Structure formats: C-alpha cells, structure tokens
C-alpha cells in the first residue's frame, strides 16, 4: 500500500532564507505526487503536482519539487521564503486505483522576520 | 462561483447524538470525498464518491455514512457520535478524480463531541 512520510513536523526559518520540506513515499507502482498548502483556518489548496514528464515541477509562487524515483522522494524547496509562506504543507500520493490521495502528516512552516 | 461549501462550520454534539455534515459543490465535479484532520495525523480519507449513486470507503469509515443522490451534494452522517470523532472535517471535490484533477477543499467543519 502507498504511504507518505513527511520527515519534519515543524520547520522554523527566517524571512528570505531557503527552505526544504522533505517528503518520502512508498509505492510499488507508478505514482502521482502532490504538495498541498493549508493557510490558517482554511481548506487545503494544490501547490504543485507531478504526474509524468519533467521531474522538476514548479508553482506560481516560487516553490519547486523534484521527483526522485531512486530515493522515493518529492522534496519541496523555495530559495527565499516570505512571511506569507507561513502555513502547513502536506505531501500526498495517489492510491493505486487513482481514486484517492494519501496525505502525509504535514509540516508546519513558520517564517519569522 | 462558491466552489465547495460546507455547513455547519462549527458543531458541538453530545455522545450518542447523530448529525449530518453538508457538502455542496457547484463545479459539476464527478469526484467528491470527505477527510478528517486531526493534530499530528494529517488528513485521513473517510468516504469518497466517483459519481452520483456511487460511494466507497476510505481509510477510516467506521461510524460514518454517506450517500450521493446528486452530483452536487455529498452529505456525511454521524450515526452515533463518539468523542473520538472530535475533529475537523473537510469535503473535497475534483473533476474526474483526485489524480487527474485538482482537489478543491471546503473551509472545514469543526466538530466537538462531548
């Protein structure tokens, strides 16, 4: 069965510093991978996704993630964070049937000045 | 365009009471789902539906019922509330499925069971 491990529950960083949020998955089949973001008191929003093709995917607000099949990872990175990036970030993998997403436990990114 | 609308936003129940969390979407999405979010647990899938008249169980279905009589609505019923069901519940929908289309989430329904 597919599963997702987010290696850090909390990541505190200063504004304009780089950040990496780590995600590892386990799956015996081809996978689709996602990062969702949840701002305080809101639902989740899709940040970026990997379905096929280029292993490096990017979001419109400067985040990027790289699918690494050999390391079964899909880490999220941003070279310079803003206060407004403070949120909880969830990595997710599709189940084998493609009927549901399996979410990790989340990483809280806290950006301070 | 309202997107995914959940009601109520907050609810307090006593153990043993029943209630229904409502979810409606106006995007004509085939796929709808219910998740619960608990601290340190992430989101766990309760039930999902790939179209009107079709529902299936997710990871944590016990104590919950769903039905999908229309494309727009996907209510979640708690049959006999227990303190372990205290959680934030999210409804989400997508065109096609969660892998082919983006999941759109509602703002959540916070349930407390005393």
Mean pLDDT of chain A: 92
Overall, the morphology of chain A is: globular
Radius of gyration of chain B, whole Å: 13 Å
- Class from secondary-structure proportions of chain A: mainly beta
Strand content of chain A: over 45%
| Separation of the first and last Cα atoms of chain B | 36 Å
The beta-strand count of chain A equals: 12
Provide the succession of SSEs of chain A: EEEEEEEEEEEE
Backbone structural class of chain B: mainly beta
Poorly predicted sequence stretches spanning 5 or more consecutive residues of chain B: none
General shape of chain B: globular
| DSSP strand count of chain B | 11
Report the sheet with the most strands of chain B, covering strand number, pairing sense and barrel closure: 7 strands, mixed
Number of helices of chain B: 0
What characteristics describe this protein?
heterodimer, A: 113 residues, 12 strands, 0% helix, B: 114 residues, mainly beta, 4-stranded antiparallel β-sheet
Textual characterization of the structure:
The complex is a heterodimer of chains A (113) and B (114). Chain A is mostly beta strands. Helices cover 0% and strands 53% of the residues of chain A. Chain A has strands spanning 3-6, 10-14, 19-21, 23-26, 33-38, 44-50, 56-58, 64-68, 73-78, 87-94, 101-103, 107-112. Chain B contains no helices and eleven strands. Chain B is mostly beta strands. The A-B interface holds A 6, 9, 32, 36, 41-46, 49, 51, 90, 94, 98-106 and B 4, 33, 35, 40-45, 48, 50, 56, 58-59, 90, 92, 97-100, 102-103, 105-108.
Blueprint of the fold:
The complex is a heterodimer of chains A (113) and B (114).
Chain A: E1 3-6, E2 10-14, E3 19-21, E4 23-26, E5 33-38, E6 44-50, E7 56-58, E8 64-68, E9 73-78, E10 87-94, E11 101-103, E12 107-112
Parallel strand pairs in A: 2-12
Antiparallel strand pairs in A: 1-4, 3-9, 5-6, 5-10, 7-8, 8-9, 10-11, 10-12
Chain B: E1 4-7, E2 10-13, E3 19-25, E4 31-38, E5 42-51, E6 54-57, E7 64-66, E8 76-78, E9 87-94, E10 104-105, E11 109-113
């Amino acid at each position: 069965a597919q599963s997702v491990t987010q290696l850090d529950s909390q990541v505190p960083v200063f504004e304009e510093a780089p950040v990496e949020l780590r995600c590892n998955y386990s799956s015996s089949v081809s996978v689709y991978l996602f990062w969702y973001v949840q701002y305080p008191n809101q639902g989740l929003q899709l940040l970026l996704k990997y379905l096929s093709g280029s292993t490096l995917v990017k979001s419109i607000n400067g985040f990027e993630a790289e699918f690494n099949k050999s390391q079964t990872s899909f880490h999220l990175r941003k070279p310079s964070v803003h206060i407004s990036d403070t949120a909880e970030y969830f990595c997710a993998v599709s189940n084998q049937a493609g009927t549901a997403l399996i979410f990790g436990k989340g990483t809280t990114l806290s950006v301070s000045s | 365009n309202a997107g995914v609308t959940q009601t109520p936003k907050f609810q307090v129940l006593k153990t043993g009471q029943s209630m229904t969390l409502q979810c409606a979407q106006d995007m004509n999405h085939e796929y709808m789902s219910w998740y619960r979010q608990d601290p340190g647990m992430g989101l766990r899938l309760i039930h999902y539906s790939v179209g009107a008249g079709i529902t299936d169980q997710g990871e944590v279905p016990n104590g919950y019922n769903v039905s999908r009589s229309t494309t727009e609505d996907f209510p979640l019923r708690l049959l006999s509330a227990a303190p372990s069901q205290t959680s934030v519940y999210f409804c989400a929908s997508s065109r096609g499925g969660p892998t082919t289309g983006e999941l759109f989430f509602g703002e959540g329904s916070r349930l407390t069971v005393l």
